[in-house]
Inverse folding.
């Protein structure tokens, strides 16, 4: 029996020396900012456990994308919309100016159903004082009245950013980053 323990200890030591240890960690969250020049992704990590009802975990986390471009999937799209509850007519956005979540109750003016995919970015119509967003869960476009303070927020506030999952050993540097929102490329065949 001691011989097996010695053999296992030797294998473990060899793996550590070979660069296989210590293991890294995996995080997942919604992208609220992406800078292609610095290759930095800022995201709101997903809430787990007792915090699950929260739209995410503050403060936002910024990580640099992998040095090897083959370790990264499609470039993530950023946005501030974290949650859309069309049943209760509420949405939660990340307000970059205050670095906090903001819950907004809305009254729909128009709801257009059976929209299979987003027609593009949200529409902020300052003349009509409305915002139109796509609700992917309901396959609908929702137009609601908006006060001047909401209309002044950046357009990306009203769109959902992509969800990314990343593997790291250093919390500031992703070794692998996968865009789990973006559709997989179609294979040739």
């Amino acid at each position: 029996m001691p011989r097996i323990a010695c053999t296992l200890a030797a294998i473990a030591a060899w793996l550590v020396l070979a660069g296989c240890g210590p293991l890294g960690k995996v995080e997942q969250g919604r992208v609220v900012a992406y800078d292609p020049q610095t290759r930095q992704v800022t995201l709101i990590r997903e809430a787990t456990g007792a915090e699950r009802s929260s739209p995410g975990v503050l403060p936002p986390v910024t990580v640099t994308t992998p040095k090897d471009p083959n370790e990264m999937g499609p470039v993530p799209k950023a946005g501030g919309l974290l949650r859309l509850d069309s049943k209760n007519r509420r949405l939660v956005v990340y307000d970059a100016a205050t670095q906090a979540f903001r819950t907004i109750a809305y009254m729909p003016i128009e709801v257009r159903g059976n929209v299979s995919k987003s027609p593009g970015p949200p529409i902020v119509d300052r003349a009509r004082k409305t915002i139109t967003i796509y609700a992917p869960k309901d396959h609908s476009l929702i137009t609601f009245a908006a006060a001047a303070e909401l209309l002044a927020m950046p357009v990306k506030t009203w769109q959902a950013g992509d969800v990314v999952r990343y593997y790291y050993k250093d919390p500031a540097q992703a070794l692998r980053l996968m865009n789990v929102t973006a559709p997989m490329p179609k294979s040739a065949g």
Observations:
- Residues 2-17 form the longest helix (16 residues).
- Residues 25-77+161-179 form a domain with the OB fold (Dihydrolipoamide Acetyltransferase, E2P) fold (CATH 2.40.50.320).
